[in-house]
Amino acid sequence: MSSVALSKNKLPKDFLWGFATASFQIEGSLDADGRGKSIWDDFSRQPGKTLDGGNGDVATDSYNRWKEDIDLLVSYGVKSYRFSIAWSRIIPLGGRNDPVNESGIQFYSTIIDTLLAKGITPFVTIYHWDLPQALDDRYGGWLNKEEIVPDFVNYAKVCFERFGDRVKYWLTFNEPWCISILGYGRGVFAPGHSSDRNRSPVGDSATEPWIVGHSVILAHAYASKLYREQFKQAQGGQIGITLNGDWMMPYDDAPENIEAAQHALDVAIGWFADPIYLGHYPEYLGVMLGDRLPVFTPEELAVVKGSSEFYGMNTYTTNLCKAGGDDEFQGKVQYTFTRPDGTQLGTQAHCAWLQDYGPGFRDLLNYLWKRYGKAIYVTENGFAVKDETSKPIEEALSDHDRVHYFQGTTSALLAAVAEDGVDIRSYFAWSLLDNFEWADGYTTRFGVTYVDYDNQKRYPKDSARFICQWFKDNVEKDEPPAPRRKGPLAALAARLVNAVKA
Ligand code: BGC
Where, by residue number, is the active site (predicted)? Predict the structure, then answer.
C-alpha cells in the first residue's frame, strides 16, 4: 500500500482523542472553598440510593489531585480532556442574582491553564447532572422552565466570560435523557422523583420527565444562542449538546420489530436530537404521549432549531428491540441482548444494561450522520468489566474485556470515517479513572485507570495502553518540517524526496 493510500485510512491529524470525566464523579471536597450543595450531595448519602452506600464526599479526590490527573493525561499522550464544571462551585446558590464564587472560578481556570500549557485541549461540559441544591429547593429545579432557563443561561454566561478565552469546545449538557428519565421518571438519580411511593414521596413519572426534558432543551438552546451572539466571534469556539443513545437493532425481521427499533431511537435520541437539529419532536413521541408532551412556542422553536453546532454522541451498547411492553421511557419497546437463536450479543459488563457489540457503534454513527448531517464528536464510550472491583489489583489491571470492547469500537470508528465517509472529529473514552458511578456507587468501574480507593493511588490498566497506542497509530502525524540544507547535497535530497513522493 502506498503512503498516500495508507494515510486515507487514518484519522485526520486534528482529530481530538482522550478521556472524559465529570465533576461530581471525581472531585469530592464537597464543602471546599465556598462550593454550594448539589442535588447529588445529600441524595447519594441517603441509605439505599447507591448500591454500596457510596457517596460523592471523596470520590477520586480530584479536587486535590487534579495535578496528578493531568500528569496522567500527559503520560497517556492525549490530545484532549473532557471534564465538567460544577455549577455550585461557580455560583454556590445557582441563581442569576446569586453571587459568583471566585475560588470556584480559580479552580477550573488553573486546570484549563495547566492543560493548555501541556498541549491538551480542554473540552468542557457545563452541566453533568449536579444541579445546585438551592435551585431544587427554591423552585423545583428543572420542573420550572421560567426560572431554570434564565438561571442556567446566566451560569453558562459566567463560564463563557471567565473561561471562554481559553476553552474552544463547549457542551451545554450531558445526556438530557438521563437527567429526565433517571432523575424524574425512574427515580434512580437525583433528585429521585418517581410515582412509585415506595421509592419517593414526590414525583409523577407520567409527566415530569417530559417537562424536564423540555426545560433542558430550552436551557441548552438559549445558552447556545447567547454564546453564538455574544462570545463566539471573539472567542472562536464551538458549542453543542451531548446526547446519550445506544444503537437499536430489530430483534428479527418482523415488521413490528423493525418499527420498534425506530420507536426506541425516537425516544432515546430523537426526543432531543429531532427538535435541536430538525426543528420538531419526533412524531412517535406525540403519538405516545398526547398532551403530556410539552409544546414549543414558535419563538422557542426558532431558537431550538440549529442550536447545536455539532452532534455530541455518548454511546455504550446495542439493544435488540422487540415491539411491546408499556415502558414509555423505552418507547414501549422491549430490549434484550439475547438473539432469537439464544446466543448473547456480546460479553456482559458489570452493569446489566451493557454488552460489548462493536458493529452497533458503526451503525449508530452512520444513522446519526445520515439523519442529522452534523459533524460528530464522540464524547463518551466505555465498558465496565464484570466483577472488576472484587479482583486483586494486578488482575484488574489486565482488563481484557475492556480492551476487546475498545478494539471493537475503535475499528468501527475508523471504518465509519474511512469507508463510510462519516465526519467524526473526536473520541473520548469513558473514563480516565474509575470513579463514583452514580447509583452504582463504587461497585462498577469504568476507568482505564484503576483507582485504589484505600489510598487513591492510580494504576493504568491494559485498556489505557491499548487506547493510547491505537490513537498514536491511527491518527495522521503532523508533517515533519522540510529538511533545510544548502548546496548540492540539498538539491540531491530534494530530488530524492520528490522521487519518493512520485
Ligand atoms: C454518563 C457518565 C456515566 C457513564 C457510565 C454516562 O451515561 O455520562 O456519567 O458514568 O455513562 O454509566
Answer: 380 (nucleophile)
Asked if 132 and 92 count as a contact pair (C-beta separation under 8 A), the reply is yes
Kindly list the distances between the CA atom of residue 18 and the CA atoms of 70, 73, 135, 468, in Å, as whole numbers in the listed order: 12, 8, 33, 8
H/E stretch holding 499: helix 487-501
Q: Separation of 469 CA from ligand 1 center, angstroms?
A: 24
The answer on pLDDT for 486 being more than 70 is: no
List of residues 6+ apart from 488 with CB closer than 8 A: none
Please state the atom number of ligand 1 nearest to the C-alpha of residue 446.
Answer: 5
Ligand 1 atom closest to Cα of residue 440: 12
Decide if 209 contacts 267 (C-beta within 8 A): no
* 300 has catalytic annotation: no
Residue 189 carries which DSSP code?
Answer: S
Ligand 1: centre distance to CA 3 (Å)? 39
Q: Look at residue 479 in the predicted model and tell me its pLDDT.
A: 73
Q: Order of strands across the sheet with 318-323?
A: 247-250, 318-323, 333-336
Q: Is the CB of 22 under 6 A from ligand 1?
A: yes
Contact present, 110 and 148 (Cβ < 8 Å): no
Mean pLDDT across 446-475: 98
Residue 61 in contact with ligand 1 by CB distance below 6 A: no
Q: How far apart are CA 412 and CA 465, in angstroms?
A: 19
Percent of the chain whose predicted confidence (pLDDT) is above 70: 94
pLDDT band for position 1 (50/70/90)? very low
Which of 50, 438, 440, 448 to mutate to test ligand 1, by most ligand atoms within 8 A of the CB atom? 438
User: Residue 480: which pLDDT band, with cuts at 50, 70 and 90?
Assistant: low
Q: What is the pLDDT of residues 252-290, one digit of tens each?
A: 999 999 999 999 999 999 999 999 999 999 999 999 999
Q: What would the grid cell of residue 231 be?
A: 462570545
Q: Do residues 376 and 311 make contact, with C-beta atoms less than 8 angstroms apart? A: yes
Which helix H or strand E contains 171, and what residues bound it?
A: strand 169-174
Q: Supply φ then ψ for residue 373, to 5 degrees.
A: 65, 25
- Digit-coded pLDDT (tens) for 349-406: 999 999 999 999 999 999 999 999 999 999 999 999 999 999 999 999 999 999 999 9
**222 CA → ligand 1 middle, Å:** 25
Q: Whose alpha carbon is nearest atom 10 of ligand 1?
A: 437
- Please give the distance, rounded to the nearest whole angstrom, from the Cα atom of residue 129 to the centre of ligand 1: 10
